[in-house]
Amino acid sequence: MTLVDDAPTPAPARGDGPGLLAAIAAREPSIRILTDPGTREAHRRDETAWLATGLPLAVAEPATTAQVAALVSLCAEFGVPMVPRGAGTGLSGGSAGIEGALTISFMRMNRILEIDHDNLTVTTQPGIVNADLKAAVAAVGLFYAPDPASYETCTIGGNLGTNAGGLCCVKYGVTRDAVLGLEIVTAAGTVIRLGGKNVKDVAGYALMPLIVGSQGTLALVTEATLRLRAAPAPRTTLLAFFPTIDTAGDAVAAMTKGGLVPVTLELMDRFTVCAVDDVHHLGLDREAAAMLLVESDLPGDAGIAEIEQAEAACQTAGASMVLRAADAVEADWLRAGRRLAFRALEQLGVARMEDIGVPRSRIPDMLRAIAVVAAEHDVTIGTFGHAGDGNLHPTFVLDRDKPDEALERIAAAKAALYEATLELGGTVTGEHGIGASRQAWLLRQRGEDAVAMMRSIKRALDPADLLNPGRVLG
User: Fold this and answer.
1) What pLDDT, on the 0 to 100 scale, is given for residue 3?
2) What per-residue confidence (pLDDT) applies to 7?
3) Is 79 within a domain?
4) 452 vs 450: CA distance, rounded Å
5) How many CA atoms within 13 Å lie on the side-chain side of 99?
6) Is residue 97 part of a domain?
7) Beta strands at 102-105 and 58-61: parallel, antiparallel or unpaired
8) Are residues 339 and 282 in the same domain?
9) Other Cβ atoms closer than 10 A to 301
10) 406 beta partners
11) Which helix (H) or strand (E) is 214 found in, with range?
12) So what's the pLDDT on residue 5?
């Protein structure tokens, strides 16, 4: 299976790789360095399986900030690029291998350093899995909001690198909104602390928002202080089925216009609903053109009132059926079905997920545009996503036995999809990042002057272009 995307061809290896490995062994023998072919090959790709990637020189597994700083300094000395990596669940190629580069895995740096009840913060190393962090703070009555669909496997460091979103973004925001402080290692190997536990801090330039979402191209994050909340009430969950995509989009727009801010407002089209039901046997309405999952985490009567308002909006928009989860267990099943939508589509063929976002009032227009793209380019698209914040994931599903036959159509359909998104005032990535897979579209969306400013920042912070080179800006 070829199935290579239109990302840039990997550049040849840079720097003195053998010299670097010899220097690490001599000067920093406590750092674990893996050079066996199997490990290097396993770190060639992240979840963006269709990209052309490079084979890492080796995989380093530091356990402390000091070891990360030492690795960065040595890479600078020998001119070898670095690729920071967490669990490798990214969907833009941001942590995929670069030929001859040192992949720095943060999976050993997975300790929670402090849970501070008084200030509602948690300080953690980047290698901890999102779900493990959630569980640890939940055990003491607190709540960490950001929850990507891959929360059971993705790491906080990866979430910081991509500014990951998730199912709760409509109410609680993306990862950047939960960051109060960072410890970073610069391209020169210097350790810097940004922010802290202050809720308000406007001293100097806002460097933390610049680092979060930069996909390891400006600095390496070795520690994060994150905002926590009191544990919310158990969720009240609503499912609404619609006879057309348009009516589902109208319901989302009506909820937004009405000022509703549910904790979850998710959409799946018919193709995706059927795929999820085939796998999980949830008894979903397979004849409906679309389904919305709406949840409130407000306590008691307030939560019931919020769901009743959402139900009224769905009914007014033309929902064919509306029902509520009978209990918390059923709600968990339904939420899990949405989280596993992409995995369900993968059962039908080679699934290639996109990540677009539009202003919430334009969701009906975007859903119509996706249908037009699918018809005009003769491709199968299953659409699901975070309708509450306008972030949709139209996913191409290709014949598993003949995936390459659709490559030209997919490339044209992808371009048409992005053009339609931008015409609606949207973005070509809502939460996955530019990485290696959307670089040409960054210029199209942001414009030459804005990208030139980004390049100047990259040159200032990483003049030798050793931090995840070729990512984001190309």
Assistant:
1) 47
2) 58
3) no
4) 5
5) 10
6) no
7) parallel
8) yes
9) 8
10) none
11) none
12) 58
Say yes or no: 374 and 411 in one domain. yes
Instruction: Please check whether residue 100 lies inside any domain of the structure.
Output: no
DSSP label at residue 386: E
Model pLDDT, residue 431: 95
Contact indicator for 158, 87 with CB cutoff of 8 Å: yes
CATH number at residue 186: 3.30.465.10
333, two tokens = 């099943």
- Name the stretches of the chain with pLDDT < 50: 1-3
**CA 322 to chain CA mean position, Å:** 30
402: buried, middle or exposed (CB in 10 Å: 19+, 13-18, 0-12)? exposed
Whether 362 and 224 share a structural domain: no
Per-residue pLDDT of 228-275, as tens digits, reads 999 999 999 999 999 999 999 999 999 999 999 999 999 999 999 999
CA-CA distance, 471 to 58, in Å (whole number)? 19
Does 276 share its domain with 406? yes
Tell me the C-alpha distance between 11 and 255, whole Å.
Answer: 48
Could you read off the pLDDT of 298-312 as tens digits, one per residue?
Answer: 999 999 999 999 999
377 belongs to a structural domain: yes
Q: In which domain, by residue range, is 211 found?
A: 112-230
Kindly state whether residues 224 and 242 are assigned to the same domain.
no
224 and 240 housed in the same domain: no
Q: For helices 65-78 and 17-27, what crossing angle results, to 10°?
A: 140
H helices of 5-83, in order, are: 17-27, 37-42, 65-78
Which domain CATH number covers 396?
Answer: 3.40.462.40
* 64: Cβ contacts below 8 Å, ≥ 6 apart: 109
Split into its structural domains, the chain has a count of 2
Does residue 372 sit in the same domain as residue 245? Answer: yes
Cβ burial, residue 79 (10 Å; 0-12/13-18/19+)? middle
Q: Is the dihedral of CA 237, 241, 244, 247 positive or negative?
A: negative
